[in-house]
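User: I'm writing a tutorial on reading structure tokens. Could you give me a worked example: one chain, its sequence, then its tokens, then a sentence or two explaining what the tokens reveal?
Assistant: Sure. Here is the example chain.
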Amino acid sequence: MLTAKQHELLVFINQRLDQSGISPSFEEMKEALDLKSKSGVHRLIGALEERGFIRRLANRARALEVMKMPESANARGDNVTRPAPVKEAKPQIQIPVAANDVLEIPFHGKIAAGVPIEALEGQNSLSVPMALLGAGEHYALEVSGDSMMEAGILDGDYALIRKADTARDGEIVVALIRGEEATLKYLRREGQQIRLDPANGSYQPQYYAPHEVQVQGKLAGLLRRYH
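And here are its predicted structure tokens:
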């Protein structure tokens, strides 16, 4: 059982912690309880600490923590507000910033995603959001054909190509064949040959000697228009 003054002090400390997160000073406690001196506050705090109702936090001034409230607190009609349970913070969703900056990159016409066609037609430019481009030098080609549709590359798409003259097996590249024709395919090495694989079961792989195939770049991204 708590004395009336102990209970009054406990309720006062608890309310102040709820309101501001900071325990009251000894002067504030003395005035709130209408005590004549701070020594009376010390005795009350000591008694509450011995009974396990409060705890002093080490190395912190004015640091008291309410450990529990007497069951009689609410029954006696005291206005005791307990801290609300801390809800686990939900991970914040990062909203991408609008890509307003654009870059003009060379547009070299159509690239076949089927049978090779003439390479690098025209020398126009295409405006591309910079967010779609990484490091390096880029150019754009319009996809013609459906042989890469299973890789999500459709007829009429704009392929954004990062210039490169080498590629690893399995990368999608612009392959210049015999210096005249270009195609967009998966590059793979098979024995002494270069295999250019489509992404459509209706098409067959194409085989070339290594000297017949020159890598002109690697697929970096796609632009698509919806009509």
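What the tokens reveal: DSSP finds four helices and twelve strands in the chain. Residues 4-20 form the longest helix (17 residues).
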